[in-house]
Design a protein that fits this description.
Number of helices: 2
Order of helices and strands: EEEEEEHEEEEEEEEEEEEEEHEE
Structural class: mainly beta
Bound molecules: calcium ion
Helix content: under 10%
Length: 346
């Protein structure tokens, strides 16, 4: 771990990046494999933001968008998108300073996949100057939305901006939160909700108490504290939607993300699939309660999520997938498992 330990971040994400059904931990530039050993280090150094999901569904697997603090460590990269399983840098945003804010989510339906943006110009927490790039790295513009936090709020599948107004020199003890949409034609954000009576947390980060799909309709509720700290208030959207998905809390990557959302430098939770305009319906998650008996035909092992599928003799083509960039030895029925997936038991 010595080669990777100096490249931590202020945030960590739990996700199965290798497709073997076992979670890795992304701790900034350092990614730890499910067995506790380093998977790789991107060697891009420390940074303040981390977004792990599938922002580019045209590329296999997940990608990681993060920003960086030391330009000497990152080689002059203020932010980068990298392959989550290997650390390969796909594209990056140049900068000359600590880039403390960045985000990635689908905010522009005219570009496939999610967009990513960061405060690469002046590094200020509330800057609207930086780079906004499409998932393939195309530079869309240098006007950016707020880069603190995001939410799934209204009826469409795009991501909304969750941020706050904050005057560090004023009398007000905390930030005034708001939700906004990115106007991709005018290239500016427009507020759609500015709730009265509540404050945000965390100084210039301005995060809510929690933001998650609590009520199960794939949109996200947001919890803020009352101005006098006497109670919490849960707000939910009233917008009608024609887009129907399972609750995000059934996604094995999103659910723990709700738990780590408030760890250190808060980050918004992401699912393990692309979420946005023209998204494919995510497959039903293969989950069960701890201690529950296995279902018929279930070998009791975790599902494997990658390219190849396991087609054991005497058994229909399964939705359980067998390929993995990392060789693993696991039971696969009675055989015929391609690639690194080997017949046998652990
Ligand atoms: Ca894994
Ligand atoms: Ca991808
Ligand atoms: Ca997009
Ligand atoms: Ca939306």
């Amino acid at each position: 771990m010595s080669s990777t330990s100096s490249y931590h971040l202020n945030d960590a994400t739990v996700a199965d990046l290798t497709g073997d059904g076992r979670d890795e931990i992304v701790y900034g530039a350092m990614t730890v494999n499910h067995n506790g050993r380093p998977l790789y280090s991107s060697r891009l150094g420390h940074g303040d933001t981390l977004h792990v999901s599938d922002p580019d569904p045209s590329r296999p697997g997940q990608e990681i968008f993060s920003t960086f603090e030391s330009m000497s460590d990152s080689g002059g990269r203020g932010a980068a998108l990298r392959d989550a399983a290997t650390g390969e840098i796909i594209w990056s945003m140049p900068s000359t300073r600590d880039v403390g804010r960045g985000a990635a989510g689908d905010i522009d339906p005219t570009h496939p996949g999610a967009e990513a943006w960061a405060v690469t110009v002046d590094g200020e927490w509330n800057s609207r100057a930086g780079e906004l790039r499409a998932a393939d790295g195309t530079l869309i513009g240098t006007d950016i939305p707020a880069a603190n936090f995001m939410i799934r709020w209204d009826g469409d599948l795009l991501r909304e901006i969750l941020d706050h107004e904050f005057d560090p020199n004023g009398d007000e003890p905390a930030g005034r939160p708001y939700i906004a949409k990115w106007d991709w034609e005018e290239r500016e954000q427009r507020e759609i909700l500015a709730p009265e009576g509540v404050f945000s947390n965390n100084h210039t980060k301005g995060t809510p108490v929690l933001r998650a799909d609590l009520f199960g309709d794939r949109r996200e509720e947001v919890i803020w504290r009352l101005e006098d700290d006497s109670a919490l208030r849960i707000l939910t959207t009233t917008d009608v939607t024609g887009h129907r998905l399972r609750t995000l809390m059934h996604d094995p990557q999103y659910r723990p993300a709700v738990a780590w959302q408030n760890e250190s430098h808060n980050q918004p939770p992401h699912p393990g699939f692309f979420s946005g305009t023209d998204m494919e319906e995510p497959p039903a998650p293969d989950i069960r309660y701890v201690g529950a008996p296995p279902a018929d035909g279930d070998d009791g092992l975790p599902p494997v999520r990658s390219a190849a599928r396991c087609t054991a003799p005497g058994r229909p083509a399964s939705t359980r997938r067998c390929g993995s960039p990392t060789p693993v030895t696991r039971s696969c029925g009675t055989g015929n498992c391609p690639g690194p997936y080997r017949t046998g038991s652990t």
